[in-house]
Amino acid sequence: MRVIGFLLQKEFLQIFRNKGMLPIIFIMPFIQLVILSNAATFDVRNVPFNLQDLDRTSLSERLSEQFTGSGYFQLTGESSTSPQALDVLVGRNADLVLVIPEGFEKELMRGGSAQVQLIINAEDGFSAGVIQGYTNDIITAFNRDLIPQLPGSAVGAPRQTISVRSSAWYNPELVYIDYMVPGILVVLVTLVGLFLSGMNVVREKEIGTIDQINVTPMKRYQFITGKLLPFWIIGLGELTLGLIIARFAFHVPMLGSYWLIYLVAGIYMLVVLGMGLLISTLTESQQQAMFIAWFFMVIFTLMSGLFTAIESMPHWAQNMTMANPVRHFVDIMRRVMLKGSGIREIATPLAILTADAGLMLTLAVNRYRKVSD
Amino acid sequence: MSEPVIHTEQLTRKFGEFTAVDAISFSVGEGEVFGFLGANGAGKTTAMKMLTGLLLPTSGKAAVAGFDVFTETESIKKNIGYMSQRFSLYDDLTARENIRFFGGIYGLSSASIQEKSKALLSSLDLLPVADSRLSDLPLGWKQKLAFSVALLHEPKIVFLDEPTGGVDPMTRRRFWDMIYEAADRGVTVFVTTHYMDEAEYCDRVSIMVNGRIAALDTPTAMKDSFGVTTMDELFIRLVRPGAGEGI
Questions:
Q1: A239 in Cβ contact with A213 (< 8 Å)
Q2: What sequence ranges are listed for the domain ABC transporter (chain B) (predicted)?
């Protein structure tokens, strides 16, 4: 125990003396948290929209007003021919063109139905889907208001329709920040934990002090503990600061228990640190360690369900994400913070994380050798 | 020679096809200052790493302080001090902090660390800079400190890998005084060097050529048997390409 104490003391002295390291630990993550949480939103607003009204009647005007007044679309211009509309799309002056053909009002009043054309820029399939959803809503509402006034419908007795009213549970106003912040917190503690531990032992290799350590009777478990504990503490400290910012700056709800979050985070940090240490023992320079850590960080983040839903990934990719610790912790954070899930509800991902922690630490301890072969 | 504290028989280390250390056999007695000479790449550092339990030998036998280098590396480590080729204290810690750290991991009591730290800093005249980071100190001072730290836990044997590389002659002189003081207390000193004047200070020297020990004797006897007047001459004769074959 005493030996670990001396090692801890030394590590903390070195961490706090490293002028390059301190900002990485204490400032960078929070700048990222603030920027990413606000920027990473799936909301599509103020879509530039081009109108091609070939009918020019009061009804066609009413329809286009529904679009401009919805708050989702912003009229950036009008066109009168299809080639013109295409130019606008290609030039990215609009992501949506609404074409109201000539005779729109006449056909509606006579036959009870008419067609309009919507041209959506689908470069980004996700946004296109959202835009289509908005336009459907607007046209449905337009229909609903219009039907009683059309010939052939019984006055005062609107047609029987099934109306679907949806309400979102656990995030009723669909606030993206509430959804993003818990996940981004996970990425931040992962980043700090993986990089700091990944660089640490390999740094001692680079400057040559590792031999001086290996020639002492220090035990392997003492060395590993002394190397990991400081970053474990720093990681949980970062999480604490992050949770404070989430609570007071972003007003992200916390329906579950903080104890549970810390229990999971404590286990999760072992996975990350074990992995960093493994990288450190497998590499010969900080550069190599950095690139490997970066490789895993990118894959873990993109396959964590933080930005893209896991459900929309192909089947093989979904299976792969099961091995991704970031995915499980993001999942747990969201469930605990937004739904108030308890330990029983998160038992499966927690068990996976615990197994991961065991695996990573075993590998790291076994790879670290005091005597080289 | 008294009871050997280092003893090797046909000790060999290969890296793939390359044989870095080729069946070396020698013994070092207690309290001896043993010079381990050889050109760059002759296998000195590899041999030293095997004796300090940092590297497993490929074949042969060796015991250090009575412990086997294959199976009892951790027991060896309790009984030796080591100063590597590269400066190996922590540059971003102060002298006092380095002493406390290494004392601590060798299991010295806090009182003992305190006491030794004070004695050591004053004998090295480091008291005024005891709380500056080592990166601010000249190399010679740092090397003397590193040597003292290697002796902190009172090991039976101390291994020094080119301890005076890049150090001025005055400091080298002082460094060798410290080596003698340690040897007088019964510490066995196993030292590699490139300075032939330092070879003369050793009780016995061995000269490694291409992984083998080409000569081993006291400096005087060795010079006599080769009919040369200086160690410099002797060394150059031995390590010149092709020269090793005839011996």
A1: no
A2: 6-235
